[in-house]
Amino acid sequence: MRLMRTFQAPTAAATSSSPSTPVATALLELHDVVASYGAIQALRGISLEVHRGEIVTMLGGNGAGKSTILRTISGLMHPRSGRVEFDGHDITAVPAHKLVRLGIGHAPEGRRIFNRLTVLENLQMGAYSRHDKAEIASDYDRVFGLFPRLQERHSQSAGTLSGGEQQMLAIGRALMGRPKLLLLDEPSMGLAPVLVEQIFRIIRDINAQGTTILLVEQNAQMALQVAGRGYILQTGKIVLADTAAALAQNEQVKIAYLGG
Amino acid sequence: MDAGILTQQAFNALTIGAMYALIALGYTMVYGIIELINFAHGDVFMVGSFVTLWLLSTFGVQGAINDPPRLTIMLIVMFAFTMTVMGLVGVVIERFAYRPLRNAPRLAPLITAIGVSFILQNIIQVTFSNSPVNVPRVIEPQAGATVQLPQFAVANFQVTASPVTFAYSHIFIIVLAVSLMVALQLFVGRTRLGRAMRSTAIDREAAQLMGVDINTTIALTFFIGSALAGAAGVAWALNYGTTKFDIGFQAGLKSFTAAVLGGIGNTTGAALGGFLIAFIEVFSSQLGYSRWSEAIVFSILILVLVFRPTGLLGQRLAERA
After folding, report:
1. What's the pLDDT score for residue B320?
2. Count of domains in chain A?
3. For B199, nearest residue in chain A (alpha carbons)
4. pLDDT at residue A5 greater than cutoff 50
5. Integer Rg of chain B from CA
6. Measured distance CA(A232)–CA(A242) in Å, rounded
7. What is the overall mean pLDDT for chain B?
8. Domains of chain B: which residue ranges?
9. Pair A17, A89 in one domain
10. How would residue B318 be classed by pLDDT, with cut points 50, 70 and 90?
């Protein structure tokens, strides 16, 4: 386990690329990360950074490596080479269960809620690594404030929730770890348009309350509306990195992800 | 019809069922969390009975202890010691025989489990004996409360009642087993670690994302399951006063059946299954089919699995995508 504090030199990108973030210090940095599933190379040298307070989105087709990047950040996978730094720590080889304590929350692809546990138990699991009882109690209020539906159904088995409610639970559960960085993997997948709007409004609220967000989405239009910056991925490589506004105007992005 | 004999047999079935249920819990918990049928689990139970034997001979206990305070202390020491030792044995088995194969194809750890089963049996054969050995019965086996049920007649049908003896050793085993099961339910259902165990069983990766160290959680599951099997081993020694290196095979098979019957992965189901199997076994013997009792037990298992593949209390919750 390596948990040494590493010296943080201000990078060029940190000072130039994001006018929307006043304090331009990187919370998360990936340096030339290579990762693979067996023989299949999923990430072919990914470098990116997320600054405190930002919403950053990653767009790309199926198999571009978006989920793999999130899994590498949250420790479910470890890079074959390259380095992942979070909040001043080198977390490249840190196992997933220790990263929650450092402040990484991950609402994974497919929600992955604990279906046979109640809604409340799912949220309790979200706070598993914490021992600050009073703070945890106020975080329940915060989550129930964001998702009143979860409060109504708190004693219900999570597997009986609708798709949208399960997504809310997945996000709420990740928030219960009080993350500095929240990784969201396709939060709008399979949801009705009205729910998609709601989820994105809540993503904005969460960010406004001080949580940095790295968002993977298929719904590029919505993602570019809430995000400050974005990365476009293709087959394990970043092909484009810019502000969300610039990406939304980019002709190639329009054709590939915004329906022309 | 003799109401006394039926009551006596029901009481016997409860005693045997308590042991099956304790063993079945370990099968179901381990299956629930790593989807492994731990074929060595019956032998963990068997080793538990020998650990008790070793403990008693170390203390120089020869037979029944009639002084209540001394008996109480002895029973506490027997259970605490055997359960701890067997719990640790379970953790060691998991660490060295199963964990290295956690991501291997399913068949690999299954074969390893059978191997561990043989290793445990061989260790006992070499260190103790090939043949049955006597274990001092610290609770006087003859002692008990004898009750005379009323005799009565319904129409022309005479219901007789032979006296029923509730042996103290049986009462103790039933009460202890039920207490352990209740404690387990509370632990799994109400505590933070219990929640971690259930979450790990449902989705290992998601549990890791919550901060659960799954290696610790799986080790804890083996500790608890094996400790319960150890308790069953002590109960066996108390009940039969004898043990042998191969008792784990049959008891293990029946307990595994109990776990499947109740719905594998479900702790309440395992307890229920244990008692059901014991009742089927005892009453088929009572009706004169003692040579068929095993065939009947397994036929019922097959029927249940055909009509309810998830077992009696198995999960049927729809899982939404």
Report:
1. 35
2. 2
3. A114
4. no
5. 21
6. 9
7. 93
8. 3-245
9. yes
10. very low
List CB contacts (< 8 A) between A129 and chain B: 210-211
Q: Which of A116, A124, A163 has the CB atom closest to B315's CB atom?
A: A116
Indicate yes or no: CB of A106 within 8 angstroms of CB of B192. no
Residue A55 in domain:
yes
Does residue A125 sit in the same domain as residue A83? Answer: no
B128 pLDDT more than 80: yes
- Asked if pLDDT for residue A139 goes beyond 60, the answer is yes
Span A87-108, mean pLDDT? 96
Question: Tell me, what CATH number does A91's domain have?
Answer: 3.40.50.300
Query: How high is the ipTM of this complex?
Result: 0.88
Nearest beta carbon to residue B320 from set A100, A112, A163: A163
Q: What is the mean pLDDT of residues B298-308?
A: 88
Cβ–Cβ contacts within 10 Å for residue A20, how many? 16
End-to-end CA distance of chain B: 56
B212/A128 Cβ within 8 A: yes
* Residues A188 and A230 reside in one and the same domain: yes
Tell me the three state secondary structure of residue A228: coil
Would residue A174 count as lying in a domain?
A: no
Domain that holds residue A231: 12-103+179-257
Could you give the CA distance from residue B133 to residue B236 in angstroms, rounded to a whole number? 13
CB contact under 8 A, B208 and A112: no
**Other Cβ atoms closer than 10 A to B299:** 12
Beta strand pairing status for B133-134 and B144-147?
Answer: unpaired
Does residue B105 register a pLDDT over 70?
yes
- Per CB-CB distance under 8 Å, the chain B contacts of A108 are 205-206, 209
In DSSP terms, which residues pair with B242 in a beta bridge? B134
The pLDDT > 70 percentage for chain A reads 90
Q: In 3-state terms, what secondary structure has residue A186?
A: coil
φ, ψ of residue A206 in degrees (nearest 5): -60, -40
Contact A47/A32 with Cβ under 8 angstroms? yes
Q: Which residues contact B187 (CB under 8 A, 6 or more apart)?
A: B193, B194, B224
Distance from CA of B152 to the nearest CA of A (A): 50
Beta bridge partners of A51: A26
Q: What is the average per-residue pLDDT within B38-56?
A: 97
Predicted pLDDT at A257: 85
Domain boundary among A167, A188, A209: A167
In this predicted structure, what is the pLDDT of residue A132? 94
The average confidence (pLDDT) of chain A is 90
Looking at the structure, tell me whether residues A17 and A92 fall in a common domain. Answer: yes
The Cα B87–Cα B122 span in angstroms is 20
| Residue A108 domain-assigned (yes or no) | no
Helix (H) or strand (E) holding B295: helix B293-307
Please indicate if any CB of chain B lies within 8 Å of the CB of A201: no
- Do residues A45 and A98 both lie within one domain? yes
- The beta-carbon neighbor of B199 closest among A76, A108, A117 is A117
Asked whether residue A79 falls in the same domain as residue A147, the answer is: no
- Say yes or no: A183 and A99 in one domain: yes
Cross-chain Cβ contact A129/B210 below 8 Å: yes
Q: Tell me which of A106, A109, A114 to substitute to probe the interface with B (most B C-beta atoms closer than 10 Å).
A: A114
Name the strand (E) or helix (H) holding B216: helix B214-240
Q: Is B212–A163 a contact, with Cβ atoms under 8 angstroms apart?
A: no
Residue A215 in any domain: the answer is yes
